[in-house]
Amino acid sequence: MGALIFGEEGVLLVERGRPPLEGYWSLPGGLVETGERLEDAVVREVWEETGLDVRAGRIATIFERIMPGAAAAEQPGKCEYHYVLVDFYCQVVGGKLRAGDDSKAARWFALPELASLKLTEGTREVIEASWELPATCAYVTRPKVHVV
């Protein structure tokens, strides 16, 4: 789950404070808790990592990242991590920017600054594509809840 938050200052990024990508800058986001709606998860993760209250908008992109593990040389196809990230456009509605939870830092970057940052793989491409392209028409489909 990731948040694309654009403002006058550029794009909001967090510096990861824990492995596997400690020290890399990426979009705020994280895991979905069991039973949590995707939009609620991205709002919670942004608050935990940045101190900002946001409103989740449309889906910007779905990003797949496969990270080969050390055993991949002996066992082709093996991977250490396989992430499927649903990135939402988010709008800041309150809060005060600060690093929190598992982030070392949180700050705004102008798009030209991205070239000099240690970014997680694919982050620059996601940001640039989402800056230039309109939100997708994709949405989350859920079954209707039937009370018996």
What does this structure look like?
The strands form 2 sheets. Strands 2, 3, 4 and 7 form a 4-stranded antiparallel beta sheet that branches. This protein is globular. Helix content is 16%, strand content 37%. It has helices at 38-50, 123-132, and strands at residues 2-4, 6-7, 10-16, 25-26, 52-68, 79-95, 103-109. With 148 residues, the chain is an alpha+beta fold.
Helix content: 10-25%
Strand content: 35-45%
Count helical runs. 2
Per CATH, the class reads: Alpha Beta
Low-confidence stretches: none
Q: What is the straight-line distance between the termini? A: 32 Å
Q: Indicate the overall shape.
A: globular
Round the mean pLDDT to the nearest integer and report it: 88
Radius of gyration: 16 Å
What does the largest sheet look like? 4 strands, antiparallel
> Might you state the CATH topology name?
Nucleoside Triphosphate Pyrophosphohydrolase
Task: Count up the domains.
Answer: 1
- CATH second-level architecture: Alpha-Beta Complex
Query: Could you give the order of the helices and strands?
Result: EEEEHEEEH
Tally of extended strands? 7
The CATH homologous superfamily is termed: Nucleoside Triphosphate Pyrophosphohydrolase
Structural class determined from secondary elements: alpha+beta
